[in-house]
User: Fold this.
Amino acid sequence: MRTYWRLRKPTTNGALVAIWSRGEVLLVRNSYVPYYSAPGGYIRPSESGREAALRELVEEVGVSVGPDQLELALDVTHEWEGKLDHVQIFNLQVSERPAVHIDHREVVEASWFDPRRALQLEHVFPPLRRVIASSLGA
Assistant:
C-alpha cells in the first residue's frame, strides 16, 4: 500500500479520539505501525468524521459514548506515509476511566500517559502530538 500511495498520492480520511481522564490521555499502539496513536481509523464513504470516531472507539477499545461528548480538537490534512492524510481528532473528557478492551491483534497496547510523558515518546502520530501539546498550552 505504501508504494501505491507514494506513486498515486491519494487522500485518505481518518478520525481519532483522544480520551482524557484525570489529566492523562489514552494512547494505543496498532500491530501494523511503529507509532502511538489514539483509537480511530478510516472514515467510511457514508460516515462523518464524528460517526467514524464513535464506531472506531467501540471497535478498538470497547468504549461507547454519545456524539455530543466528542469535541473536535483538530481537523488537518498533512502528508503521511506517501499520501495526503486528512484527519479529524476529537477530544473526549471522561471523569471515570472507562474499561478499555483491546483485541491484541489490531490494537496491541492501550496505556494512559501524562501529556508530558506522551510528548517524550519518540513515535507519536504527528497530528495527535499537536493535540497533546495543545492540552499543555504549547
About this structure: The beta strands are 11-21, 24-30, 36-37, 40-42, 70-80, 83-93, 107-113. The CA atoms of residues 74 and 89 lie 5 Å apart. The chain has a mean pLDDT of 92.
